[in-house]
Design brief:
Largest sheet of chain B: 8 strands, mixed
Largest interface: A-B, 9 and 13 residues
Radius of gyration of chain B: 24 Å
Shape of chain A: globular
Number of domains of chain A: 1
Order of helices and strands of chain A: HHH
Helix content of chain B: 25-40%
Number of domains of chain B: 3
CATH class of the largest domain in chain B: Alpha Beta
Number of strands of chain A: 0
Distance between the termini of chain A: 21 Å
CATH topology of the largest domain in chain B: FAD/NAD(P)-binding domain
Number of helices of chain B: 14
Radius of gyration of chain A: 13 Å
Largest sheet of chain A: none
CATH superfamily of the largest domain in chain B: FAD/NAD(P)-binding domain
Number of helices of chain A: 3
Oligomer: heterodimer
Strand content of chain B: 25-35%
Structural class of chain B: alpha+beta
CATH architecture of the largest domain in chain B: 3-Layer(bba) Sandwich
């Protein structure tokens, strides 16, 4: 089950770390960066059901 | 061009031209890899066939080169697999490169103790040559060269086939017609049947060359190599010191330009360096499609191999699937012709092999999409995977340069009896291919013949009629690979798939499973 409640101890730190890591990247670099990040995190999560649920939620408008 | 000497197979005047000939149980169209394999599998079961081929020689060009373990096991029944292994290049390892560095090595042989290796690379013309030779020695097979099918007329109880020869036309009556006539299948066209699927626009160049020097005995795949920085390159060794170089050209390349020897040599020079020397064997520019017929059985006409389904070359799933089709079909046709099973059994050829084709097309399409990404985000994930692969083992596993052919799964087939015992921790489940193991100084695969086999561990019971009992001890590698305990019993189909398995030998249960596997409960 995909966690819906807060699971981060320092949410602002993590959020800003992600945003800051994209600073100064052009569109193509963002795409390359995000692809690597998603693959790294997906492998860490491991659970296919959770990953598929996240994909579904992310696709919602 | 080429070191292979193409033999010409003689045309002989068919008896039908002089009023002879009779209704044939099986007529096979096409003498590629599927047709002769089907004819030999039928002959092994006492069924005569006529094989019609418009040509008088073997495959022009190396074409299908990776002969998989499961195909070799099938051909071993005709006594020709040992010669294929001897002539071909045995390989189990492969390496994937990113730019100039290796990122991922794989070994396809997970364990020793199998009669055949994962793959033997042998050009299709050698495979066909051995098949033709074996067919010629088989009295039940009438292999007719320069016999071109020009019309087919389906009837309720058979098919009338019009054939053109150098001496004129004749017609031949078949109870069953097997169309093994390739991706452009004339029979499929004559019957006006559609061939739906997906077209891929990327162009690839195959250059088969004879390179002088030390050749790698493994599969090598490069993404963005220094000698072709925009795309991918695949390298495969074949028999006779031939190398298959498969170069991705992209969508916009001009095939006529790329095929010019000077342009090929320029690419090869970049790849092999200034001192390398080679001769050209065969050159081809190709694109590919993934297609599958909606039904493989149309009345009394049955489609086999590329005529019924086709995939990209990445994964060696074309020729090997064709051989598996033939093996699935042969025993079913034989028992239906003998009146031992209802004709509905042949519907399971369609359902089982369509499931296999789905699996092959899925694997092939995924590999294709990885090698030639279709949209920018797909390329971004592909490149991200390659970039991570050097430092992260998980990413190496995601690199898909072709998931190589293994026996497909047909779990859920109506012919199989699902597991009832809950304590299986290994072994091939129903719908999976049997696995080989050493057995009494020989091999388990050698002991499984043309009938159903009851593989019984540690019980000397009597097998049901129509099966061969193979009683072995529940120990050693064979015991491990079948998760065996005393009493463990497997019912193995003639095409070496598991039809059912139980922890205790029960002849009534076995007889019921056998009936089911013969299509007696199949309502199609």
């Amino acid at each position: 089950m995909l966690k819906r409640d807060l699971n981060l101890t320092r949410p602002d730190e993590v959020y800003n770390a992600i945003v800051d890591a994209h600073k100064g990247l052009d569109e193509e670099q963002v795409r390359a960066f995000d692809a690597k990040l998603i693959l790294l995190l997906a492998n860490h999560v491991g659970d296919e059901t959770v990953i598929r649920e996240a994909l579904k939620e992310a696709a919602k408008q | 061009m080429g070191s292979y000497e193409y033999r010409t197979y003689p045309y002989r005047r068919p008896p039908e031209l002089d009023g002879g000939g009779s209704r044939r149980p099986v007529v096979i169209v096409g003498a590629g890899m599927a047709g002769p394999t089907l004819a030999l599998s039928l002959a092994a079961r006492g069924v005569a066939s006529v094989v019609l081929d418009e040509d008088d020689t073997v495959s022009l060009g190396s074409r299908s080169i990776c002969q998989a373990k499961h195909s070799l096991e099938i051909w071993d029944r005709f006594g020709i697999a040992a010669r294929m292994v001897e002539k071909g290049i045995t390989w189990t390892e492969g390496e994937v490169y990113l730019r100039d560095r290796p990122v991922y090595r794989f070994n396809l042989a997970p364990e020793p103790g199998h009669k055949f290796p994962a793959f033997v690379n042998l050009q299709q013309y050698y495979v066909e040559e051995l098949l033709y030779e074996r067919c010629a020695a088989e009295p039940l097979i009438d292999l007719r060269h320069r016999n071109k099918v020009v019309a087919v007329a389906p009837r309720d109880d058979g098919v009338t086939v019009e054939v053109e020869t150098p001496d004129g036309r004749y017609s031949i009556e078949a109870e069953w017609l097997a169309a093994c006539d390739g991706v452009r299948s004339p029979v499929r066209h004559m019957l006006g049947l559609p061939y739906p699927g997906e077209v891929f626009n990327d162009q690839f160049l195959i250059a088969d060359i004879r390179l002088k020097g030390d050749l790698p005995k493994e599969r090598r795949f490069w993404f963005y190599p220094p000698f072709h920085p925009t795309n991918s390159v695949l390298l495969h060794r074949q028999a006779d010191d031939v190398l298959r170089v498969d170069i991705q050209l992209g969508r916009d390349a001009d095939p006529e330009e790329e095929k010019k020897p000077a342009n090929i040599d320029r690419r090869l020079r970049q790849m092999f360096g200034p001192d390398a020397r080679w001769d050209h064997e065969w050159t081809s520019v190709y694109t590919f499609t993934c297609r599958m017929m909606e039904k493989f059985v149309h009345g009394r006409t049955i489609f086999v191999g590329d005529a019924a389904h086709v995939v990209s070359p990445f994964g060696a799933r074309g020729g090997n699937a064709a051989v598996a089709d033939a093996d699935n079909l042969a025993w079913k046709l034989a028992v239906v012709l003998a009146g031992q099973a209802p004709a509905a059994l042949l519907d399971t050829y369609c359902s089982e092999r369509r499931a296999a084709s789905h699996e092959n097309i899925l694997n092939s399409t995924r590999a294709t999409d990885f090698i030639t990404p279709k949209f920018p985000a797909s390329r971004a994930f592909r490149d991200a995977t390659l970039a991570l692969a050097r430092d992260f083992p998980f990413a190496r596993a995601l690199i898909n340069s072709g998931r190589l052919s293994v026996p497909t799964s047909q779990v859920g087939s109506p012919l199989d009896t699902p597991d009832v015992d809950a304590d299986w921790t290994g072994g091939p489940s129903p719908g999976r291919a049997m696995v080989d193991a050493p057995l009494n100084g020989s091999w388990l695969a050698d002991q499984v013949g043309c009938d159903f086999t009851v593989l019984s561990f540690g019980s000397g019971e009597t097998a049901p009629a129509g099966t061969t009992l193979l009683s072995v001890e529940a120990q050693g590698l064979v015991g491990q690979r079948y998760d065996a305990r005393p009493g463990t019993t497997y019912l193995i189909r003639p095409d070496r798939y598991v039809a059912g398995r139980w922890r205790h030998f029960d002849s009534a249960v076995l007889a019921a499973a056998l009936g089911r596997a013969m299509g007696k409960e199949t309502a199609c």
